[in-house]
Structures are given as C-alpha cells and as structure tokens.
Amino acid sequence: MARKKNTAVAKRLPVSVEMIERRIYLIRGTKVMLDSDLADLYQVETKALNRAVRRNVVRFPEDFMFQLSEEEAESLRCQIGTSNGRGGRRYLPYVFTEHGVVMLSSVLSSERAVQMNVLIVRAFVKLREMLGTHKDLANKIAAIERQQHEHGRQLAGVYTMVRRLMEPPRRKKRQIGFRVTP
C-alpha cells in the first residue's frame, strides 16, 4: 500500500528526471547540484535549505557538500546565464554531491523532499550509466581505430607488392659493340 502511495506522489511531481539531469553540473571533477536548484526542486527557500544544512553540518563532510570559489561561481554563472549576483545571493553557493543529496532527505523531512530525493538519485544513476556506456563505446572505437590502422599498414604493403608485379620486367639492355678490356 505504501509503495502505491509513493508511486502516486512521484507521478504528481511536475519534475522529470531529464529536467533534473540538466541541473547536474561537473565541478572539480564531481557531479553536483546547486543549493538553489535543490531548494527549487524541494519547494523551499535556498536560505532555509542552507540553514537546515548548517544545523546538521556534521552530516555533510566535504565529499557530500562544498562551497564554490568565486571563480567557480562566476564560471557557472556564465554557463547557465544567471545574473551577475547583485541583488541576489550574498554568499557563494553550496553544491551537493549525490551522497549529499541523499543526506538532505534526513535533514529535510517533508514528503516532497523525500520524493524529490528519489528522483534526483535516479537522475545521478542514469547519468552514471550513460557515462559507463560512453566509456564502453569509446573503448570499442579506440580498438576499431587501432585495428583499422593495422589493416591500413598491411594494405599499404599489399599495394606496394601489386605495383611491383604490375611493372613490366626490367631487362638489361645489351650493349651493341665490342668490349674493350685494358
């Protein structure tokens, strides 16, 4: 019964996994989500989300959550096309890794937060699977390229031999006349 209720709530959520995937960024070599994006998904204010995190800071080590540097924030701001920050945020944004998002479900106890966490984790898993597929494809393409290079080298040798066979035989021309030996 509880499973049906959770599925029904998830269906009522107006957020698709694809929309969540677009809010996952690669920063410092880690897939993360911005605190403001998470607050938007959970339908809470960003400052309320950050306040809840600060109250439970021991649950969020650096591999779960970290604050962006000024350069990272500016680069991200340019990437996603947000304003220059005047009149908006006073502090640099926090970002949460997949583990940090899971930990948020224990800090934010609303039904919406729990359901959104499920969707967000699914988005992270889907991205991980896609990256794994891309790595497999990249490895296969590299193997084909190596094989193609080897075949090309072998074909070049065959072409050289065929050209030699197609040339008319070279005969030594006999010199007409007498040979003078000293």
Tell me what you see in this structure.
This protein is α+β, with helices and mostly antiparallel strands and 182 residues long. Helix content is 61%, strand content 8%. It has seven helices and four strands; from the N terminus they run H-H-E-E-H-H-E-H-E-H-H. It has helices spanning 2-12, 17-21, 35-42, 46-55, 70-80, 98-107, 111-166, and strands at residues 24-27, 30-34, 65-67, 94-96. It has a four-stranded antiparallel sheet. Strand 1 and strand 2 (30-34) form a beta hairpin. Helix 6 (98-107) packs antiparallel against helix 7. The longest helix has 56 residues, at 111-166. The protein starts with a helix and ends in a 16-residue tail after the last helix. Residues 1-11 have low confidence and may be disordered.
